Task: inverse folding
């Protein structure tokens, strides 16, 4: 079920709000209702995978229970290995088979595997909780609350990745207490903003650049259109930031404050800042649960610690790339960003500070060029785009391509959506509320054509 | 929050009420303002308004290969009242939807002309080609109402309102599109999409779309004249006798002929033949779209068939 489609917006969401309104006076029913709603949401469209989600929740909760009683760390290790193995089977089997085939000099059969929605995200949620349980930071929770942590429908499919400590105590709280209207209103503003980002910015760019990437997959792009393909990074920004804002808004409708995922990344003046502003919750996860453990483990003599540090950084970013998809282009994308982060660190340590404008320009250029590798699918297609940049852009068409100028400008100049919403809602403004209502109506009318495209991060 | 939800709810209600009042596609399902016709160049949606117009008793069904047949000429030659219901880019299932819509809105039909391009001769059931608005031609008012909540519907609603206010003229109610292909050069595009040959000789006589057409026509009262016609294509694109393509074409023509065999005032006419007119590029816009010069000759044959059935002399 897509957040930007009628079945969700006109049927599921109103029904879910109504159900929660009815159970709100009964504390013992609130979590159960949200769990059942989340399962219904997940089962829609691909019912068999609900079994995978249920099984995954049950096994991990049982592992947590067993660990709490026995304190055997091996139980947590086994559960995490099992989680990663399931993720690997669904996401990386064909990638492994293909590369193994290359190594062996013969082609191995490819498996007909469909990637279950959200598997990357719920696997990471399990890992976050189990690791913290073993570290003694997390308590054991009842099964329904744990099930909701994994399956809460606003963020189950594509995040934001939430640490258990951020939401567990929020689950089941009374929503319809005095002042609920304000939280509800802010939630609607986030939903309207997210839908606007997705439909009017992200999808708008996608319609322009998708044919160019299709052309690049088939052969060289020699007509000057390759320049337009650089705007993919803006497309995925507004696609995923839009999704994240909708998720945050939905969370607020059910009394849950989810963490922000983007903070105007294209206003960054260096690549480190960029990664502190882009997909914030994923980077927090990677930093806390992969990078820091790798850096803090004594693996090399003290004088080699910088090498371990930068090695861990590169490894983390390469894995970040591989997490996005089972392809060497994603690994290359992540590794290039890792190299840029290493260079940025060394520059900060040994070189004079760059002017902010130059730093910003270098960061944007890096993000746009590596975005081509991320989107192209194959190195050949990416090369075709880069080769096409040798041809000057076709300026005759540009009056039809105003989104390619306006949307990047919005990314460069506007603050993060949460800051805009906070600023506008500092005090009650009835005209603004009416405007948001009108905006939601315009969005619903736009969706009426039935030409709905999925969110990019559903594939990851 | 009340202002936000109130605007959303009230706006949605007003918008929906406006759509119900205007009936943006003139489908006949709603529309309380009594506005006649549409001003719509998109045949996918425009044909609904034409097809339910009670002024007509006869129709031309087809896709862009039927578009040049002039309903006014046909009406003049036959004494019937023809409306042009060709839908550009339509596949047979989509043409069935239009035919069904026309039949539902006309209790007394006099004649039907179905232009059967090569897509009718497929040995497999046709897959939909594009986003045809079945919701507009279906029976359900509810499904139609659900599709009125969109920008295109809103644009159509304002067009209809403009017609109602006298600010805009409705399109030709006969569906005539004389200006669609202005005079000019021949374009080397649009080669006919002849279906893949049957895998076996036995399968050569199986035409799912023609079977459906046969069922539809068999259900019609016997006094309705039916003319099935294969549209002309430029000469090099005509299947040659003695080839697999030729055999396929002959099998399809035989099936088409069989559908109207024995039916009064009905005929099958194959205009996809080799003659001086189909060899002359001046008679075509591209390989499959003929100009009014050929359409006028085709109309003569169709009118003669409605008068005399398969005894008609086809001069082509």
Result:
């Amino acid at each position: 079920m897509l957040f930007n489609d009628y079945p969700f917006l006109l049927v599921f969401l109103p029904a879910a709000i109504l159900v929660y309104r009815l159970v709100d006076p009964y504390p013992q029913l609130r979590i159960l209702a949200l769990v059942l709603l989340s399962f219904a949401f997940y089962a829609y469209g691909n019912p068999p995978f609900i079994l995978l989600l249920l099984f995954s929740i049950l096994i991990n909760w049982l592992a947590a229970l067993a660990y709490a009683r026995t304190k055997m760390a091996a139980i947590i290790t086994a559960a995490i290995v099992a989680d990663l193995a399931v993720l690997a089977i669904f996401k990386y089997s064909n990638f492994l088979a293909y590369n193994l085939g290359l190594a062996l000099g013969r082609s191995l059969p490819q498996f007909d595997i469909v990637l279950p929605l959200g598997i990357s995200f719920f696997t990471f949620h399990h890992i976050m909780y189990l690791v913290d349980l073993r570290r003694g930071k997390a308590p054991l929770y009842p099964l329904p609350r744990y099930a909701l942590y994994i399956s809460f429908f606003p963020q189950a499919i594509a995040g934001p990745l939430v640490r258990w400590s951020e939401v567990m105590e929020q689950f089941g709280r009374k929503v319809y207490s005095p002042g609920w209207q304000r939280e509800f209103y802010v939630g609607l503003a986030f939903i309207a903003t997210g839908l606007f980002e997705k439909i009017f910015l992200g999808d708008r760019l996608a319609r322009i650049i998708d044919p160019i990437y299709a052309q690049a997959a088939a052969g060289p792009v020699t007509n000057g259109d390759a320049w337009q393909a650089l705007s993919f990074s803006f497309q995925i920004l507004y696609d995923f930031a839009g999704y994240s804002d909708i998720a945050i808004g939905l969370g607020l409708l059910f009394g849950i404050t989810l963490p922000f995922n983007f903070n105007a990344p294209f206003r960054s003046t260096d690549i480190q800042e960029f990664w502190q502003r882009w997909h914030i919750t994923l980077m927090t996860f990677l930093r806390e649960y992969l990078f820091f453990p790798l850096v803090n483990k004594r693996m090399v003599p003290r004088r080699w610690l910088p090498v371990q540090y930068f090695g861990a950084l590169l490894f983390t970013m390469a894995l970040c790339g591989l997490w996005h998809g089972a392809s060497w282009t994603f690994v290359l994308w992540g590794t290039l960003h890792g190299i840029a982060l290493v260079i940025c660190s060394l520059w900060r340590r040994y070189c004079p500070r760059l002017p902010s404008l130059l730093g910003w320009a270098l960061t944007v250029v890096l993000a746009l060029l590596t975005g081509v590798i991320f989107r192209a699918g194959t190195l050949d297609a990416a090369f075709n785009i880069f080769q096409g940049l040798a041809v000057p852009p076709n300026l005759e068409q540009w009056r039809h391509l105003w989104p390619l100028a306006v949307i990047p400008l919005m990314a460069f100049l506007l603050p993060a959506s949460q800051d805009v919403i906070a600023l506008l809602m500092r005090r009650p403004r009835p005209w603004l509320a009416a405007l948001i209502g009108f905006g939601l109506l315009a969005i619903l009318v736009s969706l009426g054509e039935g030409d709905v495209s999925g969110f990019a991060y559903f594939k990851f | 929050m009340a202002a936000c939800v109130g605007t959303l709810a009230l706006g949605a209600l007003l918008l929906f009420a406006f759509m119900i009042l205007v009936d943006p596609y003139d489908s006949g399902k709603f529309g309380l303002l009594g506005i006649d016709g549409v001003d719509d160049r998109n045949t996918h949606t425009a044909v609904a308004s034409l097809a339910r117009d009670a002024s007509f008793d006869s129709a031309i069904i087809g896709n862009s290969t039927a578009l040049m047949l002039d309903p006014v000429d046909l009406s003049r030659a036959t004494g019937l009242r023809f409306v042009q219901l060709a839908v550009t880019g339509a596949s047979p299932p989509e043409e069935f939807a239009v035919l069904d819509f026309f039949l539902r809105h006309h209790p007394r039909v006099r004649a039907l002309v179905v232009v059967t391009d090569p897509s009718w001769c497929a040995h497999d059931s046709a897959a939909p080609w594009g986003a045809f608005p079945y919701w507009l031609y279906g029976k359900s008012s509810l499904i139609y109402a659900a599709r009125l909540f969109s920008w295109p519907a809103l644009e159509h609603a304002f067009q209809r309102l403009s017609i109602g206010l006298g600010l805009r003229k409705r399109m030709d109610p006969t569906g005539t599109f004389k200006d669609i292909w202005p005079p000019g050069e021949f374009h080397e595009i649009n080669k006919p999409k002849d279906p893949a040959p049957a895998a076996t000789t036995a399968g050569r006589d199986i035409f799912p779309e023609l079977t459906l057409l046969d069922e539809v026509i068999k259900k019609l009262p016997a006094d309705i004249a039916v003319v099935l016609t294969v549209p002309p294509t430029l000469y090099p694109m005509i299947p040659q006798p003695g080839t697999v393509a030729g055999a396929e074409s002959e099998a399809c023509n035989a099936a088409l002929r069989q559908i109207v065999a024995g039916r009064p005032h009905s005929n099958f006419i194959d205009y996809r033949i080799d003659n001086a007119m189909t060899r002359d590029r001046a008679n075509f816009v591209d390989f499959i779209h003929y100009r009014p010069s050929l359409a006028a000759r085709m109309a003569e044959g169709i009118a003669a068939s409605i008068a005399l059935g398969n005894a008609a002399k086809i001069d082509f």
